[in-house]
Amino acid sequence: MIMARTPSNMISLGSKAPDFNLLDVTSDSTFSLAENKGTVGTVIMFICNHCPYVKHVNPTISKLAKQYQSDQIKFIAISSNDVINYPEDSPEKMKINVIENDFNFPYLYDESQEIAKAYDAACTPDFYLYDDNLRLVYRGQLDDSRPGNEIESNGDDIKNAIDCLINGIENNDLQKPSIGCNIKWK
Fold first, then answer.
1. In terms of CATH architecture, what is 6-182?
2. What is the greatest pairwise CA distance in the chain?
3. Domain map of the chain by residue range?
């Protein structure tokens, strides 16, 4: 299978997280970033249901969220894909994806795609880690694993960033762009 390989846009560290109010398909309610950020940090992930790159790392994402999710660290997933042309990314299918992957975090639907644009998100999966003031401290990949590259997904890049944030260590080391399917724009 040939997959498009789109890298994430490496926005500037220190950038403020754009606020949002989006539908959380897990609770059928509106979710606000400002009201639900972590006291230490917040991981925002742009994912979707159909992308092979996302499917490849879903077990790792689920495991990491279970390991870190607390009042201190919050995980939030957002799907911004065009559901008319990609119906497998619809809110109904998102609910199924939450159950199948045992996600313990909100999975939000960005129907207008305004939030993906505000974050300059380019691909799925794409990861952002913000501090307690919602200032960007990490952006890029989960780890070096990709479908077919024989490297096991372990979440090392985002784990290292979270651990540095929790321990008050600056993490400006090499941050690699994520690689994945392009966001399906309307």
1. 3-Layer(aba) Sandwich (3.40)
2. 44
3. 6-182
